[in-house]
């Protein structure tokens, strides 16, 4: 790409960011689209891991997605759960997810394991809060990519590893699981070229998992919170070209103070405790309030602020508009905050 074209793209993106930052949000609008789809195939890939393929009833094309994307799956019971897309994104006629059955939890994974071909489901999205930079957006000084997957976190990383392999990017994947019987996609990964697959069991040393990471390595991680903390702590002590990760659960609220969020449209007052997000508290009274990543960078939970000053905690600068807030992470500097909801 020429320098002239790069300057043009930089200006265009900067203009869009400025416009987005100053656009006033007066009402909440969901970015979701409801797709009426049907389960066409299910298969047990590994111990307690169900592979589910979903298509349109007429096999028509579905919205495009990119590596790192997920969908909101509305189950027959009405439960809504988020699952990473792990199939071939060049296949525009189907979405593929893989779900580990958890006996303890909200029951979503258990219900997924009861789905059979022909079951009607609703899909919202796709959304992407965990984009893969290669091959189009990589910085020139990054030599390779290190992937770290913990358990079912492989579902988010599999399309990225596949993309790196197809693009000729040097990659290595450390895939950690209890044992091979519980680890899906081992055969798929073994067929990929141009990189190194390391299958690790139990609790291997973080130093071994991140061996070889240096200032020219970009790291992508998906796994349980404790594993994420350990990887993050180790990377803080060594040079690297960027750490990108997706959480299994929203990050904990740290250093929060309680406040009251007043819903202008619903005419409700909602108390937000110090250790809960505004989104969690609001969903107690309005379960359908839109959200996606719950980490402050996708913008789905952005709402207009009528009165009060939000405490910014989101990571996307273009969403830091004084007239809006991200209810999944932002809090309030004032005891009371009124929003357009």
Automatic annotation (TrEMBL):
Keyword list, A-Z: 2Fe-2S, Flavoprotein, Iron, Iron-sulfur, Metal-binding, Oxidoreductase
GO molecular function ontology, one term from the record: oxidoreductase activity
Domain FAD-binding FR-type span(s) in chain numbering: 32-133
InterPro entries from the UniProt entry: 2Fe-2S_ferredoxin-like_sf, 2Fe-2S_ferredoxin-type, 2Fe2S_fd_BS, Beta-grasp_dom_sf, Cbr1-like_FAD-bd_dom, FAD-bd_FR_type, FNR_nucleotide-bd, MRET
Needed co-factor(s): FAD
Signal peptide segment: none
Domain 2Fe-2S ferredoxin-type residue range list: 259-341
Keyword Iron-sulfur among UniProt keywords: yes
Protein name (record): Ferredoxin-NADP reductase
UniProt organism field: Williamsia sterculiae
């Amino acid at each position: 790409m020429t320098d002239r074209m790069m300057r043009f793209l930089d200006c265009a993106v900067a203009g869009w960011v400025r416009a987005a930052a100053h656009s006033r949000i007066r009402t909440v609008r969901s970015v979701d689209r409801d797709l009426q789809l049907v389960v066409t195939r299910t298969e047990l890939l590994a111990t307690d891991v169900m592979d589910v393929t979903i298509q349109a009833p007429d096999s028509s094309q579905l919205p495009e997605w990119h590596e790192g994307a997920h969908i909101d799956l509305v189950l027959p019971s009405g439960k809504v759960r988020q699952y990473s897309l792990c199939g071939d994104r060049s296949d525009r006629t189907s979405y593929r997810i893989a779900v580990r059955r958890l006996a303890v939890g909200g029951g979503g994974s258990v219900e997924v394991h009861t789905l059979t071909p022909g079951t009607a489901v609703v899909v919202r999205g796709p959304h992407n809060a965990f984009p893969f930079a290669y091959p189009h957006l990589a910085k020139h000084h990054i030599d390779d990519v290190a992937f770290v997957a913990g358990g079912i976190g492989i579902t988010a990383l599999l399309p990225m590893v596949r993309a790196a392999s197809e693009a000729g990017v040097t990659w290595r994947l450390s895939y950690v699981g209890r044992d091979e019987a519980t680890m899906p996609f081992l055969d798929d990964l073994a067929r990929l070229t141009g990189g190194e697959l390391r299958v690790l069991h139990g609790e291997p040393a973080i130093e071994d998992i991140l061996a070889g990471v240096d200032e020219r390595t970009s790291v992508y991680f998906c796994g349980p919170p404790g594993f994420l903390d350990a990887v993050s702590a180790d990377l803080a002590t060594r040079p690297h070209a960027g750490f990108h990760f997706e959480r299994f659960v929203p990050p904990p609220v740290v250093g929060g103070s309680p406040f009251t969020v007043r819903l202008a449209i619903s005419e409700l007052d909602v108390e937000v405790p110090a250790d809960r997000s505004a989104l969690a508290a609001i969903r107690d009274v309005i379960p359908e309030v839109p959200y996606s990543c719950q980490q402050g960078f996708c913008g789905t939970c952005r709402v207009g602020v009528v009165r009060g000053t939000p405490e910014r905690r989101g990571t996307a600068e273009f969403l830091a508009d004084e007239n809006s807030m991200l209810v999944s992470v932002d809090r309030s500097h004032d005891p009371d905050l009124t929003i357009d909801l």
